[in-house]
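Structure ticket #2291
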Amino acid sequence: MIIRRADKSDLNKVYLIEKDSFQEPWSRRFFEYFIDSDNTVFLIAVEEDVLGYIIWQLESTSKLKNFEDLNTGHLLNLAVGREHRRRKVASSLLERLFMEIDKYKPVATYLEVACSNQTAVNLYLKFNFQILSLIPKYYRLGGDAYLMVKVLF
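Resolution: structure written out below.
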């Protein structure tokens, strides 16, 4: 498995994984935006095909209480194709992400994850994220999310 920066030629495969992975998938335009966005890390895992992806963005004004004036990162999206799950693809993407974001010197990174997605919650806990709070009705269809944070310093 190779993990590398995503480029525009990867977007069709990434978008198919997105649509298959989430009840409320992002539009293709979001992915197009993040491919070219500054202060963003957009990685894909590849073998013969795209296995999964991760998108993270540096925020100069944090939404996290007590981190308002510090650089923080937001893990925006992580998904692995259904046929490639349980092969450590997500773990590999997270490991590489934390190497890549070191140059931005964030003090913390955070994410939102569906409370119902226990597999993802457990993965983030394994990577030392902590559940900070519950966000009721975070998703358009009414699902709750956890706000999780990982302090990096």
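Closing remark: DSSP finds four helices and seven strands in the chain.
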